[in-house]
Amino acid sequence: MTELLPARLFAPLALTAIAALGLLLWVLRNGDLCPGQRRRISDGLLSTWAVFGLALMLGVEAAVPAPLLWLGGLALSAGLGSVLYQARLQGKRSLPLSWHTPALALAVLYGIWIMTIMGPAALLAAGAGGCVFAHLIMVRAKHRLQAFNTLLPLVGIASAVGWLLLLLVQAMVASSAAQADMSHLIVPFGQMSAAILLGAITWLLPLMRKEQTRPPVIAVAVLLILGALTTGQGIIWQLSINIS
């Protein structure tokens, strides 16, 4: 991959979509949902596949391996097929979760492949992006699972902070091992820290003020967290250049 915006966006967006998809399907399977909530959350799966498709197109621009693109294409085709078929159902009916299982399995394999490229930081990126994106979709679906309004922000913010700390450790280790000057990473780390801080405050604001969580607030948190992940991906690229 080259240091271009598509290369920096590809992995964070793909991992965000996959993690959000997994979380939403888990909620659909285990959550106490009425038919209306179930249908609205199921319809929200289209958003995860849209982001996944965007990541796939960015992967083409970023020159990721062709087999990875083919795997992503299969997952996207299966996922969109299920969601679009569900859109034809009348009323509050939704497809059984077994219809989404093949696409989820392919998407998970796709994510594991990306993790082998990125390393352990990918798990934290998936946790941060997946939690905030899944929360946005659930809030837009007017869910009534109030525990998730607390659980998802806490897990997502913890993952984002863990992502930041892991990159700091990797930068320190790389600096010691290669005896390289890492001063050029100060600004990206500052930008990433600011984005995570602002994203965390925005995400937790309804919880701290004991207000109803609204989609525009979570949407801002999504942009900030994804911005932090994108900046972090650029740092990973810089570290790989310095080490090599």
UniProtKB/TrEMBL annotation:
Keywords: Membrane, Transmembrane, Transmembrane helix. The chain crosses the membrane at residues 6-28, 40-60, 121-139, 151-173, 185-205, 217-239. It comes from the Bacteria. This is Uncharacterized protein. It comes from Oceanisphaera arctica.
